[in-house]
Design a protein that fits this description.
With 234 residues, the chain is an alpha+beta fold. It has helices at residues 2-27, 166-174, 200-233, and strands at residues 37-44, 46-47, 53-61, 70-77, 82-85, 97-101, 111-121, 125-137, 145-155.
């Protein structure tokens, strides 16, 4: 009888030792002592020929969270015709579903960041833009939470700008990324590609005028020579 009791206690102890460690491990996963502050806001909700819509996502990790950093991902969903720009996207625009993770550079306790996004559109009308951020304690994605918001964007006129928004360009240049400027659509360029520093259109005009003058001179000389030649034969 005593042996059976001892065997039962030993079995219970073995099972207990087998189950407890994973439970303890789960309890030691990083958690926020104080919830981060997340704010999705619209700065500009109208898109015009020369003006972009602008959104900001403010993320703050309270100091009370000690050594628990904040990781996450920002997602924008836009209708056809709208393009999102941000330095988080490497300076390139995105359409449809745009993802911008910041888990590789988590926000440490006591710090905050403002993520800025710009939107342009080729389609006129009312365009709903959906923004969301999912965040979690670094290393513990199981504790992820999300904040979502819809932005009612009005497109008064199709965008004609082709250059990057100034804030995105400045942030990229601060990171050492060189940006090549592009002339806006519908705007004549004053760039030069000749040693005299003249605008391209002026060079073409001068060349065309000179060509016409030379051809006219040759025609005139040909007619004079032909007339004299006919007179000599006579």
């Amino acid at each position: 009888m005593v042996k059976k009791i001892m065997a039962g206690l030993a079995l219970t102890l073995i099972v207990g030792l087998t189950v407890v460690p994973p439970v303890l491990a789960d309890n030691h996963k990083k958690q926020f002592r104080q919830s981060p502050t997340i704010d999705l806001r619209a700065v500009v909700l109208e898109i015009t020929t020369d003006s972009d819509a602008q959104f900001e996502i403010v993320v703050a990790n309270p100091t009370l969270n000690g050594d628990v950093s904040l990781a996450g991902e920002i997602v924008f969903r836009v209708p056809p015709g709208i393009t999102i720009y941000s330095s988080l996207l490497g300076g390139s625009g995105g359409t449809g579903i745009v993802q911008a993770p910041f888990d590789n550079q988590p926000i440490k306790p006591g710090n905050s960041l403002v993520f800025t996004f710009f939107a342009r559109s080729q389609t006129v009308g009312n365009m709903p833009v959906f923004g969301s951020i999912t965040y979690w304690p670094e290393g513990n994605m199981e504790a992820a939470q999300s904040v979502n918001r819809q932005f009612p964007v009005t497109v008064s006129a199709p965008s004609k700008r082709t250059d990057l928004p100034s804030q995105v360009r400045e942030e990229l240049e601060a990171l050492g990324v060189q940006i090549e400027e592009k002339a806006a659509s519908g705007v004549s360029s004053t760039g030069t590609d000749n040693p005299f520093g003249w605008a391209t259109w002026f060079v073409i005009l001068v060349f065309a005028t000179g060509t016409i003058a030379v051809l006219g001179l040759f025609i005139m000389i040909y007619k004079i020579v032909k007339v004299r030649s006919g007179s000599t034969r006579s």
